[in-house]
Amino acid sequence: MSRIGDLADTLIIGDRAGTALYRRIFVVSAFGGITNLLLEHKKTGAPGAYALFANDDSDHGWLDALTRVAAAMSEAHGAILTDGADLALAEDFVRDRIEGARSVLFDLRRLCSYGHFRLSAHMQVVRELLSGLGEAHAAFVTALMLRRKGVNARFVDLSGWRDDAEVSLDQRIATGLADVDLAREMPIVTGYAQCREGLMREYDRGYSEVTFSAIAAATRAREAIIHKEFHLSSADPKLVGEAAVRKIGHTNYDVADQLSNLGMEAIHPNAAKTLRQADIPLRVTNAFDPHDPGTLIDDAPADAPAVEIVTGLEVVALELFEPDMVGVKGYDATTLEALRRHRVRIVSKSSNANTITHYVEAPLKSVRRVAAELERAYPSADIGVRSLAIVSAVGRDLSGLRAFGRGLNALEDAGIEVIAAHQTPRNVDIQFAVPRDAADRAVIALHRALVSGAAAEPVPRAA
Questions:
Q1: What is the mean pLDDT of residues 65-76?
Q2: Strand 186-190 versus strand 153-156 pairing type
Q3: Separation CA 119–CA 138 (nearest Å)
Q4: How crowded is residue 36: how many other Cβ atoms within 10 Å of its Cβ?
Q5: What CATH number is associated with residue 442?
Q6: Which of 25, 59, 200, 391 could form a disulfide with 312 if both were Cys (CB 3.0 to 4.6 A apart)?
Q7: Is 256 a member of any domain?
Q8: Domain-ending residue, one of 166, 188, 221
């Protein structure tokens, strides 16, 4: 989004003119860094306006945080808009939204100073209110910019700003698009939609793709397209080299689900489910390569077996060993309940007669809390916690490739210890658990053996 000014002439307009510009709906996220300032930094956890408001005692640091948000918004649209009138409109928009949010938060804190009201009960609503500011600003500015370029763009605000109606997501979308003429207007829609379901409660910061897929389903779109900064490739080009990776080109929703499970989301799994049920294909393109068709994701089977992508994810292995487990039910259910209670996401699991191992994506301290709970439930059990990585080879059809054995050989040749390995009968993915510090080398080795087929250069061994 921070480069939307460059993309307007290539991706949005391109060689289109007249009516060919329309019958497209663009769903936008916030400009780069804005949501981090509004909520908290996604990677570092540095507090934004929401986090400061939630933990405020008396210094009102969230007020300064909102001021920083306003400044960042001004800088973002200042880099895109060139007309003085448009800049003035954008500044007025930011002022209205930021000052409105400031007033709401002041009033809420004042209300909750009375004993009958608890601030904690309203924090999810506060999070949604603040997050929606970023998408609304980006959509408003994008519409301004496109109108200046001769496109009949229309800002469609689904954020529920100053709206006292309580509606579902489908109703919010229907109302927002009710009088839009798609034949002659280009809706620029906010990725956040305020609704009864509470998108952030369900999806946190993955809500834009959920809104996007719901709009596609509601309008019976011919195709849903996600524009990313890169092609959906066979591995991370920064890791295995740009010359070695291949654009996937065509895959299916089954593979997209596996990638999502491994933290490499082509699309949020719930959004993919909506598109799949509506029989709408998804296309993932490189926004900066607008003439390339990108990768099509649908329900079509593979033309031939192949490993399509190799990727990895850092995990924590939680192992429960109990000699008395054999023939006794309940151990797995107790573990799953503890993981659910501590909001720990399961990536994979394996078990045998007396051991259950869950590979989870969560902070180590959260997993240790689960381990402590299991130790109390099963005093004689041996509970182990270990930081690892799962490196996976994924494809629509892996049958007949001997990819499991070839993968093991490739990792052995690279001097990488394989702690565990797993392949399901469905033949869509193979998972190798390796030491965390060997994850990158494992991706390189597996990609070379299973995708690129190159064997000229040996994978570097650990010193």
A1: 96
A2: parallel
A3: 29
A4: 21
A5: 3.30.2130.10
A6: 391
A7: no
A8: 221
Q: What is this structure's pTM?
A: 0.84
H-helix or E-strand spanning residue 359 = strand 355-361
In this structure, the answer to whether residues 212 and 358 fall within a common structural domain is no
The domain tally of the chain equals 2
Give the domain-ending residue among 199, 221, 243.
221
Among 224, 231, 265, smallest CA distance to 246 is for 231
* 3-state SS class at 188: strand
* Concatenated DSSP letters of 40-100: B-TTT--B-HHHHHHT-SSS-HHHHHHHHHHHHHHHHHHTT--SHHHHHHHHHHHHHHHHH
Do 214 and 321 fall into the same domain? no
DSSP letter (8 states) at residue 12: I
Are residues 80 and 208 located together in one domain of the fold?
Answer: yes
**Has residue 205 been placed in a domain?**
yes
DSSP state of 354: S
Are 194 and 160 a contacting pair, CB within 8 Å? yes
Q: Per residue in 185-229, pLDDT tens? A: 999 999 999 988 887 777 777 788 889 999 999 999 999 999 988
* Closest by Cα among 267, 183, 193, 169 to 225: 267
CA distance 2 to 226: 16
Does residue 250 belong to any structural domain of this protein?
no
Report which of 462, 393, 387 is spatially closest to residue 419, judged by C-alpha positions.
Answer: 387
Residue 461, in any domain of the structure: no
Residues 16-43 pLDDT 10s = 999 999 999 999 999 999 999 999 988 7
Q: What is the CATH number of the domain that holds 61?
A: 3.40.1160.10
- As beta bridge partners, residue 392 has 311, 431
| Burial bucket for residue 56 (CB in 10 Å: 0-12, 13-18, 19+) | middle
Q: Which domain holds residue 12?
A: 4-221
Structure tokens at 376: 């109390």
CA distance 237 to 245: 6
Rounded CA-CA distance 250/273 in Å is: 18
Burial class (CB in 10 A: 0-12, 13-18, 19+), 57: exposed
Give the HSE-up count for residue 215: Cα atoms under 13 Å, Cβ half-sphere.
Answer: 28
Instruction: Report the residue count for the chain.
Output: 463
